[in-house]
User: Fold this.
Amino acid sequence: MSHMLLRVLGAVLAFAVATSSLAAPATPAPPRPDLAGRVVDDSSNPVAGAKVIVWTAAVKTGYSTMCPSCYPDCGKSATTGSDGTFTIPTVDPDLKYQLMIVHESFAPKTKGKIDPLAPAQTIALDKKPPLPDDPEQSLRGRVLDFDGKPIAHATVQPRFIYWKAPMNQPSGAGGAVEGLDTLALTNSDGEFVLSYSKKPVTRWELEISARGHATQYFKRIDQYNANTHLRLGPGATVRGRLLRAGASVSGVQMILTHGYRAMEFLGDEKIATDSDGYFTFVNIPIADITKWPDEVNLENDFGPKNRWWLAASMASLKGNGAVAPRSVLVERHDQDIDLGDIEIGPALHIRGRVITADGKPIPEGSTFMFSAKSSWEPIQRTINPDGTFFIDGLFPDDWDIYFAIKGYGISRFQPCRQRGIAGALSQSLDDYVVLVDTDSPQQDFGIAGPYPPLQSIDPKHLPQNPGK
Assistant:
């Protein structure tokens, strides 16, 4: 057969394949479901006119390579009808969603882990109490970006408030405070109102977050600066690539944790490595490093306020190596920090046993929890009935270990005893022994500085005749 004939036949075959593929009907994409639900008050009456906003999203399985508010569906919204129902059309069926519900007569509410493929949920709102008569019991403010433009739908959370006590002494409270609004949401002009029903407030500390901006912790906010000082910026970007023996590793969750564990703690961010091992954190907060004359300086305990710790999630690595936390200084907005290639190293483990001072068996359902000082990922395991336990995937760090054993606390003779056990781990341990006793309740304080090496109980303190 001639070369010319082969070319002709090849051309005919290629044309036939091309035309058949063109003629073949394309497989239609599966329909995207609507996310529907109903909003009611605390008496199950429908709430009309409530705005329901898709706040964040998360994958149903595995780990996400996108930030929670970066999905295309985030920011979609709907308004409830006269019967309280709402419908947000065509969302991704592979995600679960967190919603924010807002109404002028009710306190803002978030509702998470909503699956659009599951039956529609009913969400109940709490009636918003009237504002106090005393204007000093409320804070009216405005959240702006760096260009002075208002930021709508920013969450404003009071973290600490101050008031004058008898004899004009300053006093205050933080966390869950009775009578204090837990959350406010800015309107289209960036405005918000918070109130405290008990007494006048002289100063507020606020945590403010908004989509596409870095969360910010604001101190010394009052009636005079709340309209001008509350500005959010883009934050920083932290990126890198995860490798094992030089090859990229996908699907591992990376955790970036704020290292300053005082009141101004900014939490953690989580993102997974993509198919090429790359990860990118966006809108990382910039800590306020202003040093006020009357402020307690805790940097000797926690390190600088702008330090973050990066580690790979122990749960996602599943014991196949570990990444020791590395320090990351996040210093300014628009900073792009490229950490380059990060290698997964060998993991450490602890194989141990818990012994009761009275020789009795370990109660069923007893557990222990490991928490690294740097990374924000507590890992919980069950203690076997014979007292043995095992945990792997660990890395060199200072560790807090907590035991939940009904009727027992860490023995006063146990080295490194604090709230639980606080010790430094530098190598694997294969016979780590912990003694628990009925007359040794766990202490209510810990240590912030470098931990002593993790050590077993001295054998001389172990029971000589267990069970007798």
DSSP finds three helices and 32 strands in the chain. The two ends are 97 Å apart (CA to CA). The chain has four domains: 35-124, 135-232, 236-343, 348-461.
